[in-house]
Write a structure and sequence with these properties.
2 copies of one chain form a homodimer. With about 400 residues, chain A is of the alpha/beta class. In chain A, about 35% of the residues lie in helices and about 15% in strands. The interface between A and B is large, with 83 and 83 residues.
Chain lengths: ~400, ~400
C-alpha cells in the first residue's frame, strides 16, 4: 500500500498535537476522546464519509493518537492518517446501528485495556456525533473514570491557522471566487434554480488555479424573494423571477478548508430599502474589517458592524461571524468564538473568520460576506476579491 | 406570504402523526421531542440546512406538533411546515454555540409552560444532533420529568412508505439512473476524479424526467484501485487509471427521498478474482431480491445473500442493507432494520431498502447495489433498471 497523501507534513501534525496536549495538561485530562470529524481530521489527517457511525480519536498524554472506528473504515484510516497500523483500532460491524450493542462498549473496553479506566477523560459533550447514549454508555462501562466536558477543546486550538493552512484557505477562496463568477455569469430570470445549482456545484468541484475542489460542509443556500427572509433554505426547481433578490451563501472547499463568500443578486431595479441595506452592509463590513486587528476582540468587530448598522437605522444583534477553516458537515464554522457583542476572544494573526453581515426583512434577504484573515498588524485581509456590492442584472 | 409548497398533502401528514401517537401511547409517553432532521421533515415538512444548531419538533398526545428552533429559522419553518404560526417557536440567537447558554434551557422552559414538566418525555438518545449536553441540560432543567429513550421511535414509523412516498422514491431512482448513465458515459482513463464528480453532481441536481434534484444525504463516494478497499473515501484530484476498478456509490434525491444505486467500472480486462466476485454479487442480489417478500425477515434477505456468497467462496457477515427514504446528512439510511443475519424485522409491502452487497479485498472493491421495494407479493422490485454487472470500458 502506498503512503497516505497527507495534506500536511509531520511537523504540522506534531504542532497540533502539542497544542492539544498542553490544554489537556492544563485541564488535568489523562485521555481525550474526540468524535468531531473536523477535530479528528485536523489531528490525524483522517478523511472519509464515515461519521454517520460512531468513531473518534483517542489522545493520551504520551504516544501517538489512536484512530478508532468501524472495522471497515480502518481501511480508510490506513490510507489517510499519519500514524501507523498500531494506532488504528476497528470495532466489529455488529455494533453498527444496533440497539442491543453500542460502539462505546468497545471503546470503553479499549480504554480499560490502555490502563485508563479510572482516568480523567475529556469528551465532547455538545458535539454532533457524540450522542447522549454514547455518553451514558461510556459512563456505565467506565464507572471509575471521571468524564469531563471537553467540548471545543480541540476546536479552540484550531483558531490560529499555520502558514500551510492559510495556503489551503487561499485555495478555497480562489474556488469561492470561481463559483461566484460562474453563478453571476449564468443566472438569469426564468432559469430553474436547480439548474443554476448544478453549475455552482460543478464549479466548486472542478476547483480553481489547478487545485481540485472538495465538497463543502454546507450545500449552497440560495433563497429568492420572500423566501430569502429565511436564511437556511437550500434550493428547489422554481424559476428565478424578475424584480427579486436571491442571495447565494456558499463556499469553495480545498481539502476540507473553507472560505465562504456570499453575494446577493437582484434582477431589475432594486427597491430603495435594499439599496439602503446594501449601503449599511458594505459600510459595516469595512468598519468591521478595520476593527479586526490583533489585540482587538471578536466583540469589537461585531460592535463596529452593529454600530454602523445603527447609524444606518438597522437594529441587529444576532451573531455576525465565526471562525472557519477545516470542516465536515453539518457546519463549516469552527464553533468557538463568535462575532457577537461582548465576545472577549482576543484576535491574533492567522485567525480566519467568516464575517457575515446579513439583513433579512420579512420580504427579502441581503447577504454580502467575506472570509477574513487577521494579519500581523493593520486591518484584516479579505481572502476573496470580488466587488462588495449588491449585484444587479 | 404564500402557503408552503408542501411535498405531501395533509392526510399524509395526519397518517404519520397518528402512527407516532400510537407508538407514544404504547410507550406511555406524554411528549416526544425529536431532533433528527429526517424525522422533523417527515412529520412536519420542515426543510432547511439549519440542523447545525439545536432544533426539533415537540409532539404531544393531542394538538399539532410544534416546530422549535433558532428564531431566524422560524422564518424557514413558516415557509415549509403544515402547522400554523401558533405552532412555530423560535429561541433567542444568544443560545447559538454559546457555552454559557444552552438552547435546551429554552426548550425546558417551553415544556414547563406547556404544563408537561413532570411528564414522561421521549428523546432520541442515540441520534446525531441530540448531544450529551442537550440531554443533561433537559435533565437538569426538568428535574420532575422522566426522560425516556425514544431513539428510532419515529424512524420505525417511516419504514412502510405510502404510495405518495413511493412516487418520490421512483423519481429519485430515475435521477440515480441518470447519474449512472452520465458517469459511465464520461469516465475514461486519465480523467481527474473531481472532474468526473462535477458531472455527477450536476446530473444529480438537474434531475430527470422533469423533476428537479435535491442534495443527497451523502456525497458521491468513488474510490479507485487499492483505495476502493476503503468503502467510505470520497474523491480527490487524481487521474483515473487503466487496469483499475472504481466503484461509484451514489444516490439521486427527490425532495429528500433517496434511491441509492452503486455500480463498479473497470478500465481494461478485469482480473479473474473480480469476475468471480461479480458473479457472486449478481447471484447474491438475485437470491436476496427473491427472498425479499412480505412475511420474510430482513435477516432472511441477508442469509440469502451470504449463503450465495459462501457458495462462491466468499465469507462476509457485515450489514448488507438498510431502509432508505427521506433523509438528511450524514446518512441516507433510516437506521432501523438491517439486512444482517438474525434481524427479525418482518418485511411488509411498501418497505424500501438499499440492498448493498459489496466485496472489498485488500487491493480492490466491488459494489453492485439496488434500491428495492417490497411488493404485495412475490420478490421485491428494483427501483432502478440498469445492468447488474461489473461495467468494463
Amino acid at each position: 500500500m502506498t503512503a497516505p497523501d497527507l495534506p500536511f507534513d509531520r511537523p504540522e501534525y506534531n504542532r497540533r498535537l502539542r497544542l492539544v496536549r498542553a490544554e489537556m495538561e492544563a485541564r488535568e485530562l489523562d485521555l481525550l476522546f474526540i468524535e468531531d470529524p473536523s477535530n479528528m481530521a485536523w489531528l490525524t489527517g483522517y478523511d472519509g464519509w464515515s461519521f454517520y457511525v460512531h468513531q473518534g480519536v483517542i489522545v493520551r498524554r504520551t504516544g501517538n493518537p489512536i484512530w478508532w472506528g468501524r472495522a471497515m473504515d480502518a481501511a480508510g484510516a490506513r490510507r489517510t492518517v499519519w500514524m501507523g497500523e498500531e494506532c488504528i483500532a476497528g470495532y466489529d460491524d455488529s455494533h453498527v446501528q444496533n440497539p442491543s450493542k453500542h460502539a462505546m462498549e468497545d471503546l470503553a473496553a479499549r480504554i480499560h485495556d490502555l490502563g485508563l479506566s479510572a482516568a480523567r477523560i475529556g469528551v465532547e459533550m455538545d458535539n454532533y456525533y457524540f450522542s447522549a447514549r454514547a455518553f451514558l454508555t461510556l459512563q456505565r462501562d467506565l464507572p471509575n473514570a471521571v468524564l469531563v466536558d471537553a467540548t471545543g477543546l480541540v476546536n479552540w486550538q484550531r483558531l490560529v491557522k499555520s502558514p500551510a493552512e492559510i495556503t489551503f484557505m487561499r485555495r478555497a477562496a480562489a474556488i469561492s471566487e470561481h463559483m461566484v463568477d460562474g453563478w453571476l455569469d449564468r443566472a438569469e430570470p426564468g432559469m430553474a434554480k436547480n439548474d443554476l445549482v448544478a453549475g455552482i456545484l460543478s464549479d466548486a468541484v472542478r476547483g480553481a488555479d489547478g487545485h481540485w475542489g472538495d465538497y463543502a460542509a454546507i450545500v449552497p443556500m440560495l433563497p429568492s424573494g420572500a423566501d430569502a427572509a429565511a436564511p437556511h433554505l437550500t434550493w428547489n426547481g422554481a424559476a428565478l423571477q424578475p424584480d427579486e433578490a436571491t442571495f447565494f451563501e456558499l463556499s469553495g472547499c480545498y481539502r476540507r478548508y473553507h472560505a465562504p463568500l456570499s453575494r446577493t443578486l437582484y434582477f431589475g431595479t432594486p427597491p430603495d430599502e435594499m439599496r439602503r441595506a446594501e449601503a449599511a452592509v458594505v459600510a459595516g463590513l469595512e468598519a468591521g474589517i478595520a476593527a479586526a486587528r490583533p489585540g482587538a476582540t471578536a466583540g469589537d468587530v461585531a460592535a463596529a458592524l452593529f454600530d454602523t448598522f445603527a447609524a444606518h437605522g438597522i437594529e441587529k444583534d444576532s451573531r455576525c461571524g465565526y471562525p472557519v477553516g477545516l470542516s465536515y458537515p453539518p457546519d463549516w464554522g469552527e464553533r468557538t468564538a463568535s462575532f457577537r457583542r461582548g465576545d472577549g476572544t482576543v484576535l491574533e494573526p492567522g485567525m480566519t473568520f467568516h464575517f457575515m453581515p446579513g439583513v433579512w426583512s420579512d420580504s427579502w434577504g441581503l447577504e454580502i460576506t467575506e472570509t477574513i484573515l487577521i494579519r500581523e498588524d493593520g486591518p484584516a485581509e479579505a481572502l476573496c476579491d470580488r466587488p462588495r456590492a449588491l449585484f444587479v442584472k
